[in-house]
Prior knowledge:
Elements: H1 3-24, H2 32-35, E1 49-53, E2 59-62, E3 65-68, E4 85-86, E5 94-98, E6 113-117, E7 135-140, E8 160-163, E9 170-171, E10 176-179, H3 195-205, E11 217-222, H4 232-239, E12 245-248, H5 261-271, E13 272-276, H6 289-292, E14 300-303, H7 309-313, E15 320-321, H8 328-339, H9 342-346, E16 355-358, H10 364-375, H11 387-393, E17 398-403, E18 415-420
Parallel strand pairs: 1-5, 1-6, 6-7, 7-8, 8-9, 11-12, 11-13, 13-14, 14-15
Antiparallel strand pairs: 2-3, 4-5, 10-16, 17-18
Amino acid sequence: MSPYRRFVVGILIIVLLTRFYNKVAFYKNEENEKLLSVNNVKPSQEPVKKILFWYEHYTLRKGQNRIRVGVGQGPAGISSDSQALRLSHCPYQCDIFNRERIVDWDTLKYYDAIVFHQHGWTPNDVPMKRWPHQHYIFLSMESSAWRFVDTKSMANFFNRTMTYRRDSDIFNPYGWFKSANQAVIFDSSQFDSQTLPRLLHETHLDSAVNYATGKTRKVAWFVSNCKSLSARNEYVDRLKTFIDVDIYGQCGNMSCSRSNPEFCRQMLESDYKFYLSLENTLCEDYVTEKFFDQMRYHIIPIVFDLHGHHARMAPSHSYINAADYQSVRELADYLTLLDGNDTLYNEYFWWKKHYASVGPGDTREGMCRLCDLLHDSTIPSKTYRNMTDWWDVQSKCRSLTFVDKNTSKNDSNFYWKSFLI
């Protein structure tokens, strides 16, 4: 090979190695100290803030449809407005982007927040450099009882949290209740000792609607996960000894097509009086679509709440908390009482005239709260030094064990007690 060709080949190798180095330099491949290195880059003064989803795509839910957004790419590696999701419905404006649309990794400094989903977390795949104006957001809608990752590796990394827990920096619940007459979110502090009895009395006077009419079955449960950390399957096994429970899905012997979920919900509403809205874990503030979905219909949800979060987020006397009954038999006896008394049954629907259930189809409110935070220059800086304590410990996840006080199974009340997990 001539000297000239060797020279050209050498130049090409240097160019290729330089481009490769620039592309991977923003990933962490060394010790944690390098993870927190920063450059003195000032935040953008643009009125529209930029949010980057690092591990996975942000998915906009519209009813039953899920739309992936923010994957377009524009000049200099920054997506144009038409290719990003503009949160134009929020009080402030933000654009949402996904990681795969980045062309030039140096543009990472232009993002105001980077969102890391718990499911995808690994300390070996994070930006190597971070800038002082950026917020690193911990996002999770999964129960903290499921230990997907080692949260010890998150120490001193996140600035903000975005979860269903009320003590998160960005509260992002599965649903909520609002006033039927105005856009006001339900606040349990509005109720005093006289309010509920008065509203229940009004329900007795309004006898135009009987929510029990036509309902010939008692309790239903749709479930596909036959294992849980909440012992819900074990609870229902005992409940069936006292009252009829129809179980749909992989854990039972009844079925309803998943291709038409609205038909299944309407079937529940017309045929059943109660629905088991039981979560697979019992953790602080963990209330999912299993509850909010059913609250949109004329059926009474049965929950198991050891933390009091349903009382904070839902109208009183709109659901039945199985944890208020010391034994499974006591709950079954109460359900049997309601089944035979339409007046008492209808009392659980007093709230329908005053409030409406929102969610879980609308995921935009949480993103608006994140957008508001990014536009608030008065919020002090913050770092979560111990995510294990905040996420794993402070969630106070519990499970159940059963104490059968009588030796005969047929005569047992099935008392239960809870314990931390």
